[in-house]
Amino acid sequence: MKIYGLRIWVDDMAAARRFYGETLSLTAKWDMEMAVGYDLGIDLIVERDDGSHEDENLVGRFVGTSIQVDDIQATYEALKAKGVPFLGPPEKMPWGGTLAHFKDPAGNTLTLLQ
């Protein structure tokens, strides 16, 4: 077994395509009307919530996903300059890693990790 993909739910696919494809510069592996798969080693599947999960609050939540980068400070500065909203600057964790949390246009929180 292996992980194929991670789904992130959004409410505006046009804004999500701009954010993930242009702002984050992720490469789309596949693209459909309601979903796009971006290459992060596994597919990061950005999918529009069609309303069929209305009781589940899929959009605008902490995703629990860490995107590993080589230089978190440089990535943080570059994305911040592009207008990506961060919850704070990169912070060294007691276990040794450094994290910085940011939001996508749908309000989902993702994490950079070094």
TrEMBL record:
Q: Which Pfam families match?
A: Glyoxalase (PF00903)
Q: What is this protein called?
A: VOC family protein
Q: Which residues form the VOC domain?
A: 2-114
Q: Which domain of life is it from?
A: Bacteria
